[in-house]
Design goal:
Blueprint lengths: L1 H15 L4 H17 L10 H20 L17 H11 L3 H12 L4 H8 L3 H21 L6
Helix pairs in contact: 1-2, 1-3, 1-5, 2-3, 3-6, 4-7, 5-7, 6-7
């Protein structure tokens, strides 16, 4: 299971942390440890991946709360050593989104989860997920257009 889900979970964290590889690795490791220690609580009511993303989501927000980041990730620096060109622009655009918008955008477009599963992972109603997706897409599109990506 770790081999199957390691890359998607790490990728989720990379997007949430705006490219911070070390932090993403640490959060992914914590996610798999929590999943392993709580495997008996998996009731097969949803897909394993949905359950695992829910754990990842909670791990990330526990981290944010523990750091008492009142303004979210907006103040974090983007890891320029990892990012180049278009990918860096995407992270800059993601950094301008609210945490909930970034989470919904990441899960929908980058992890290919349907709205219903995002609602389960985040604990938000499906309508709220749709609203975050709509606002997030608009903000991201505007940012990219302002930065030379006219075809968007």
């Amino acid at each position: 299971l770790v081999k199957k889900y390691q890359s998607p979970v790490r990728r989720f964290f990379l997007h949430q942390t705006l490219g911070d590889e070390e932090l993403s690795d640490d959060l992914a490791q914590e996610t798999f440890l929590k999943a392993y220690t709580h495997l008996s609580s998996f009731k097969n009511l949803s897909n394993f991946s949905t359950w695992l993303y829910r754990i990842a989501y909670n791990v990330f927000y526990d981290y944010i709360r523990s750091k008492k980041e009142t303004s979210g990730l907006e103040d974090w620096e983007i890891d320029a050593s990892y990012q180049v060109g278009e990918q860096m622009d995407i992270y800059r655009g993601l950094s301008r989104l609210k945490e909930a918008e970034r989470t919904c955008i990441t899960l929908f477009f980058m992890e290919d989860l349907p709205i219903e599963k995002i609602a389960i992972v985040t604990g938000m109603p499906a309508g709220t997920v749709k609203s975050h997706l709509s606002r997030g897409k608009e903000k991201l599109s505007n940012f990219l257009k302002q930065n030379g990506y006219d075809g968007i």
